[in-house]
User: What shape does this take?
Amino acid sequence: MKRDISVVATLLLSTLTAPTLADHATPEEIEVTGIQPTTRLTLDTEPGELPLVDTSALLKRVPGANVNSNGPVTGIAQYRGLFGDRVSIHIDHAPALTGGPNAMDAPLTYTPPLLLKSLVVIRGIAPVSAAQESLGGHMTASLDRGEFGDDEDFDVSGSLSSRFNGVSDGSSSALKSTLANNQHKLSALFSHDEGDDTRVGDDDEIGGSQYRRGRYDLSYGWRNDNSSIEIYTGELDTRDTGTPALPMDINYIDGDTVGTNVSTTLGEVILSGHLSYNHVDHKMDNYSQRTAPDSLARYRINNATAHNTAWSLQARWPVASGYLSVGTDGNETVHTATITNPNSALFEVANFNDAERDTYGVFTEWEGEIGEWHVQTGARVNRVKMDSESVGASGMMGMMAMNADMLASAFNNGDRDEDFTYLDLALNLSRPLTDSTTLNLGLGRKNRAPSYQERYLWLPLAATGGLADGRNYIGNLDLDEETAHEVTVGIDWQTGKAWATPQLFYRRIDDYIQGVPSDNATANMLSTMMSGDTALMFDNVDAKMYGADMGYGYMISATLRLEGNLSYVRGKRRDEDDNLYRVAPLNNRLSLIYEQRALMLALESVLYASQNKVSDFNQEEKTAGYGILNLSGSYRLTPQLILSGGVENLFDNRYEDHLAGYNRNGDSDIGLGERLPGAGRNIYLAATLHW
Assistant: This one.
C-alpha cells in the first residue's frame, strides 16, 4: 500500500529544484511515498531553465547530499558524508563507468543537465535490489529518450534548449526529438556545453576551469501489452577541459555506451533485465592547459582506458501480502593507465595494467504489509574478484629509477589476485502514527570491496579517484572490505500548510579505507623526490558518521510559499583522534517562491557554516562560513515557449566551498595550494521550445 502525500510532493519541489521552475512548466516530480520505507526523491528537470553545467550540482538541493568539485564538469556525488566509489550511481539502469584514475569523468558527467530526464536519490538505506555496492547510498540518472504515443499514429515530439551563463561566458544547447506511436519509439539526443574560465569575486578568474563537452544518443523502444525492450547507444565527447584541483587536465574523454533494457510479464511474474557495454578512452596532461613544469623531464601524459560489461536479471511476483523479488547481477571492469613524457621516448610508467575488478551478486527482497507496518527487507551476497597484470617503469634516472624498480618488484611479487565475499542486509519499516505523521525506520549492513586505485596504485601518485588533497598515495594489496552498520529514524509530517521530513542517521564503518602515513621507506623517498611530501598509504581504519537532514516548507498563501532543506553530517575516526576528509559542514537552503499563472519568481538563500572538523592526515584546511543570495524567474510566453533567467550570487560574494579542491594550476588568479573559491555573480538566460 502506498500513501501519496501530494502536498509534500508539491511543496518539496523547490527544495530540490527551486528557484528554477514553476508549475506552468513541465513539472518536476518528487515521489515521496509516505509509508514506503525508502524515500525516493525524483528530479525530473525542465531543460534549459537550470543554470547548471554539471548534473551533480542538483545534489546540493537534496537533503543529505552534496558534491565534491575538482573542475567545471567533474562533480563527485556525496551523500551523508560519503563519496566516490562508496556512492552507487547507475546511468540508465547500468553501473556507471569512469575511465581515469582521478574521476575526471565522474558518473554524472555522462548525463548533461539539458538531456536529463530524472535523477533519483534513494534517501536512507538503499534496498539490496538497487545496486551491488551501495554502502554510501544509491542514485540513478536517466536520459530523456521520449515517451511512447497513445495510439497507432506516429507523432514527432521534442524540444530545443539554449542557455547562457555569464560567469564563464558559457553556453549550453540541446536538441531532443522523438518519433513514436503506442508501440514504437525512436529518439535522438544531442547536447553541447562550452565555457571559459570561471570568474569569482574581486574580478579574479579560476585558471584552467574552461570546459567543452558534447553528448550524443540514439535509441529505439518497442512494447506491447506484456513486454518492452529498449536499445540505446551513446557517446560522451569531452575536450580541453580543466581540472584545477588535480595534477592534470583533460585533453579528451571519449566514452561509448551500448545497452538494452527488457521486461516481460509471464502470468503473475514480472521479469526485467539489463545488458550494457561501456568503453572509455581518456588522455590528460600537466602542461597544455596550465603552466608547464620547470623541467622538460617533468612533463607528463597519461593515457587511460577502461571498459566494462554489466548485466542484471530480476523476477518479481506476489507473495503473501506483498511482492518477492529475486535476482542476479554482474559487472566486469578493466582499467589501464600509462604515463609517458613527450620529451623522452624512453620514459614510460605502467600506472595500472589491466587492473580487473569483477562483481557478481545474487539477492532476494520482500516488500509488503504486515499489520500497520510497511516492510521492505532483503539480503544480498556479493563476490568481488580483483587482479592486475605486472607493472613497471622505464626512463627514470638515478635514485628515482632504483626506488621505482623496487616498488614494481614488490608489487609484481605480491598477491594481486584477491576475492572478497560478503553479505548485505537491509530492513526498512514505516507506519502512520497520525493522519499527518508517518514514522520511518531503517537498519542496514552494507559492504564495499577496495577500488582498483586503493589496491593497485603501486607508485606514489595523486591518482586517487579525485580525492584532490594534493598528496601522493600508494595502494595496499592487503586491504579488507569496508563493512558499515547503519540505523536511520525519521518522520514525514505534513498539515494543510506546513511539512517537514527530518531523518537522523548513525553509521559505523569497520575497516574504512583511507590514506594514513606510509611506513614504506621506498615509497616515501620517491614521493618526497616528486612532490616534497611523504606518501599516504590506503589502509583500513575504523570510522563513524552521524547527522540529520530534512526538507521543510510552509504555504504562506495560494501563490507564495517557503521551502528549504537542511543537512548536517559529522565524520570521525574511531581508532585515532582525527576527522574524516572532505565532509560538508552544516548547510541550509531556503527559498521564497511566488507563482501565478505563467509567471514564477524566487529568492533563494544558501547558508554554509564554517568547517573546523578537518582531517589532519590529509592536511585539510578549515573553511569559513558563508551565505549567498540567488534570484530567478521564468515566464511561459506561449504554450510551447518558456523563457527564464536569474542571478546567482547576487552580491558577488567571495567564498570557499569546503568540498572544493585545492588549486594546482599556475595560470590562475588563485594561488597554488589555495582552496578553489565559489563562482562569482552569474547572470544567466535560457529558452526552451517544445513541440
Summary: The chain has one domain: 6-146+155-690. Confidence is low (pLDDT under 50) at residues 1-39. DSSP finds four helices and 35 strands in the chain.
